[in-house]
Amino acid sequence: MSTPNTVKNILSIAGSDPSGGAGIQADLKSIAAAGGYGMAAISALTAQNTRGVSAVHVPPAGFLLAQLRAVSEDIAIDAIKIGMLANAAVIDELGGWLAGIRTAAGSDAPAVVLDPVMVATSGDSLLDAEATNALRRLFAHVDVITPNIPELAVLGRGPVAGNWEQAVAQARSLAAEYQVLVLAKGGHLEGETCRDALISPDGVLFEVASPRLATANTHGTGCSLSSALATFYARGGDWAQALRQAKAWLSEAIARADELAVGGGHGPVNHLAALWDGVRPAPARDPLAHWWEAIAGIRAGIDELAFIRRLKDGSLAPADFEDYLGQDALYLRSYARVMSRASELAPTTEEQRFWAGSAASCLEEEMTLHRGRLADQVPEPSNATTAYLNHLRAGSDDYPVLAAALLPCFWIYQDVGKRLAVANHPAHPYADWLATYSSVQFDDVTARAIELVRGVHARADGSTRAAMWRAFEASSVHELDFFAQTAADAPGAGDGVGSITAGVALPVG
Ligand SMILES: Nc1ncnc2c1ncn2[C@@H]1O[C@H](COP(=O)(O)OP(=O)(O)O)[C@@H](O)[C@H]1O
Ligand SMILES: Cc1ncc(COP(=O)(O)O)c(N)n1
Prior knowledge:
Layout: E1 9-16, H1 23-33, E2 37-48, E3 53-57, H2 61-72, E4 79-82, H3 88-105, E5 111-114, H4 131-138, E6 144-145, H5 149-155, H6 164-178, E7 181-185, E8 193-200, E9 203-211, H7 221-236, H8 239-255, H9 273-276, H10 287-294, H11 296-304, H12 306-313, H13 318-345, H14 349-374, H15 383-394, H16 399-421, H17 431-436, H18 440-459, H19 462-483
Parallel strand pairs: 1-2, 1-4, 4-5, 5-6, 6-7
Antiparallel strand pairs: 2-3, 7-8, 8-9
The structure holds adenosine-5'-diphosphate (ADP) and (4-amino-2-methylpyrimidin-5-yl)methyl dihydrogen phosphate (MP5).
(4-amino-2-methylpyrimidin-5-yl)methyl dihydrogen phosphate binds near residues 14, 23, 46, 83 and 84.
């Protein structure tokens, strides 16, 4: 392994897709987007485009071994992503090499993510029928396998799952049979959300969800997700966090796939869209609408939290709500100060008044609400609270970045509040809280905050815009962590979704 602060070296062992959307081409772009140094050993060459695969050439398995040795004899490999492997000879050669490097490296061995590629999005087969058993032998040398729904059925020797619960059950038995983590992916199911979950023999460890996007351009999504997962894991050492980061990045890449014009079939995702924002002219569409779309995965994650679901139906334990309110009270005090700082830095009187007014009403209205419920018991700040506040304070010398960092607290609360308000009624145990964040006044102030940040963005140069987006995205992740911090979402709390780690700064801008 390389030393802690160096860029991580990620090796893709996969097939080549000359149209650039899947295989090693997708892997290298995904690894770069996720902040790693990408390397690629080619296991097979395909002749394919967005419409389908017309030919496959598999070099001798010994030549794959020569590539793997050349890399591993010289370069510290931090993580490996494995994709298309074509046939049993290639798989067994790879298995031998993997066993060797894993034994030699011991606890420093690179993490291995295996995407068991069998069929392309176009429907073409990419793996010999006899090779499936060889693939099963390879599981002994990997940490995570990432089958899609049809691949899960083949590997689990069962029917193709028709719903998410069946997919999770199949993934769990596969995890138990081979003692690996299985990333079950819901892309091939129907419904408004695409769910993915990391599953161990004991059940779901972590689940993410994002809105299902209406696009035909999903060629290479599996390749891209597994490469980003391996890279984020190499960087952070936490599978749940890596999945959340990979999913957030991929959701944006899919959301912006239609900005590319590649082929007439299933086109690629827009791997580097976020990077290009800083160096290409801003897209004609509203950038803040795009920001909002790009954090769809994070927003869906908030909606899925036990805390939010129970707050909505009123079944949230009073102790959990109090824990949350205590942290919220601490947070709001500092949040008001950071807004005062924004007021100080604001270039126009109108913006100065907006932030000063928001700081004052934040202290007056929300603190009344908190004090009414909490009396004077204010707890110590949690890790999630501290991380969020540190992030806000880190931007407090740069007005555009600060304005962008402050926005999710308005926007996400208003958005979540709207959905919570639907369930409100006079006897609801948290009626006053639900009412505050779904009021017309809060809608108005949120709309003004969005408009203000849109104006700051319009005046900013490319690198400032990229920094604003990063600050906005990081605050959104902190929002998720903040909502996820009560016992309702603690690991093992019971209803499947949970185990969210605190304080992530997403590196993708
Ligand atoms: N239309 C879509 N909208 C949003 N996310 C999608 C869509 N299709 C696939 N995904 C996501 O892409 C990733 C790959 O999933 P999937 O399509 O199931 O695997 P594969 O590409 O291996 O067939 C998953 O995170 C899935 O949720
Ligand atoms: C070389 C190669 N590897 C993998 C895939 C699968 O692509 P998808 O991620 O769309 O299932 C592909 N079409 N080509």
